[in-house]
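Lab manual, section 2.4: Encoding a predicted structure.

Procedure: take the sequence of the chain (302 residues), apply the prediction step described in section 2.3, and record the output as structure tokens. A sample record is shown.
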Amino acid sequence: MNELIKNNIETKILDANFIKDYKNDLLKKFEKINFNYEDKYVYIIYFTTSKNNYFAKNQNKIFNNIKTKNSFIISKLIEINPNVIKLQEFMELIHIISNNDNTIGINIELPLPLNYRNYQTEIFLKINRFKDIDCLNPINYYEFLEKDKNKLDDIIIPSVANSVKIMMDYYDINYNKKDIVILGNSLYTGFSIAALFLKFDSTVYLFNKHTRDIKSKSIIGDILVSATGVINLVDKNYIKEGACVIDVGFEVYNNKIYGDVNLEDLINKAQAVSIVPNGIGRICNYSALLNLYKNLLRANII
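Recorded output:
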């Protein structure tokens, strides 16, 4: 019994409350931008076939009515029914929006609908790379992969990956030269998180649904990041004592938001665990806003 008490860890709960101050500081920078009394637009595109449109609708609120020196940035939400809008029509729409002089930002909800998915590269190439707010354009994504850690301030970063880093920086969680396990390998979540932490000399283990003996392999991680969308997947059997756990999962069930992590089961074994909601998803909105600001810098608009 005394041994059990000795081994208990006071688990730190990681939330995103701090991001409000980060956002307010960034909005003050937008207030200095001079658009010569012309309102500018950010377009958020989502699909009727998605399980939920939480992020698209939330981003629409985040980007709407951002004050600049003498005008506003206004967000436009565009709903696409992929069963009605054919692929070529959709690609032409992206091209037109991206090349409009009054457009300064564009984001497309992921994953793409099944009938668009085989043409993801072609679709994302239609996004003007200086108006891409989530690193979807393949040129931006390659630039993210290619640049080292000292160049991160000069490029846009996939919002999920950057959000994980921002949270870990805020809570002073060391990700340099660590063993990092990532559950889920989709290009813009798990894979991008892996690519980011490889820049910091960490050893990254990227697991997917076909990985055998995943629990026994996961316990190697000093840090475990879960991005699977499977509710309460990660329990105490996935981690070693003292590991840090970042929950990137997001699912809505019976109008309630869940993550990948069974928080209660990790208490007193994990050193730190991020929560859902009010975790990585909330920081993603800030990360996309930061990408918008970086793009304006890169395009020499500010």
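Check your result against the sample. Residues 34-134 form a domain with the Rossmann fold fold (CATH 3.40.50.10860).
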